Queue: 2 jobs
Job 1
Amino acid sequence: QSVLTQPPSVSAAPGQKVTISCSGSSSNIGNNCVSWYRQFPGTAPKLLIYECNKRPSGIPDRFSGSKSGTSATLAITGLQTGDEADYYCGAWDSSLSAGVFGGGTKLTVL
Amino acid sequence: EVQLVESGGGLVQPGGSLRLSCAASGFTFSSYWMTWVRQAPGKGLEWVANIRQDGSEKYYVDSVKGRFTISRDNAKNSLYLQMNSLRAEDTAVYYCAPLPSNAPPKYWGQGTLVTVSS
């Protein structure tokens, strides 16, 4: 059972927008920012969003993050077939003194 | 460029031990908390352990307390995870990462696979 809660799967058509939710508590998302990662099969996670809404160099502005209360959302616009992957949210948990993660969401681009 | 190279994984019988290593470069290793995160086959990411910059504070997920020990050698820019009394449920890819201040990892190594099976 993951500390953060994500939907197991989402899907959308190429060119459309999709959102992935991440729910936590006051000890993590409620008082800390969220990071988002993308992972292709057999590879390590890659950072997409950090500090709630910042993008590392090389990540296109099709990816954006937001936070409200104890939940966060990753939005991906202009979906491409190459965006099919697993997406994870992560946040610092002040009670555990650790980074915690969601269970992952599989994105299917129909 | 931040580089993290994990090693030491392999096949081990239940009850056995392994020591994972992580060689870090491209950042000031001694300035960062470090963490181990694992991912069981087909499952999500799970935090395993953290260690403070000087090694004076360590935190573990409940499922590994008393069995795993995290340590570091700042002179060698290296992080370690001693895993004892291994169980089938410890089977996973293990990643090491530096921790930004009060935030989850930004950078990840390629991971090392630990398989616990008879």
Job 2
Amino acid sequence: GQNIDQPTEMTATEGAIVQINCTYQTSGFNGLFWYQQHAGEAPTFLSYNVLDGLEEKGRFSSFLSRSKGYSYLLLKELQMKDSASYLCAVLDSNYQLIWGAGTKLIIKP
Amino acid sequence: GAVVSQHPSWVICKSGTSVKIECRSLDFQATTMFWYRQFPKQSLMLMATSNEGSKATYEQGVEKDKFLINHASLTLSTLTVTSAHPEDSSFYICSARIGSWDTDTQYFGPGTRLTVL
């Protein structure tokens, strides 16, 4: 079957760095998305990786290793507003999205 | 974990026809279902929120008469794109929420890719 694993919850301190991991097993791969979702709001697009490597976008970076079925989202200089759920989703060979359950990130002062 | 399915996975239709997309929660009852539209590498745009047995709440700018939503049971919501046009071509994603108003856990479906010729 297809599945995506990511931690259920993580806690970090304001100003610090946190890495949210995502491992996947899917039938085919056409890219991996990271979304941020605040409670009561729609998911916001953060990144899309289809090739191996690290992509940096401001305070957020996303890494992909296709051979390992692994990605991570790196958040630097954490701010209180970064408290949210972070969703990992993979586009499989049929261009269907396979979703992780999301990681709830709690930022403490 | 909770599973949400969508049917069909993809559909190609002629301009002017109507297309129905189903969203089902397979192993749980969803009090609320959401319909999103996704453009390439962009955020999911919330179209509407549907609660079982009541009318859907549409987001500003979404035409109610064009995107008909029916939430007939706790496990099924349907989105019908009426008189589809090429600009309606998109990836439509549904999600289902478990629990009460203060439980914000959503489970997302795999999406339906609509292409209107």
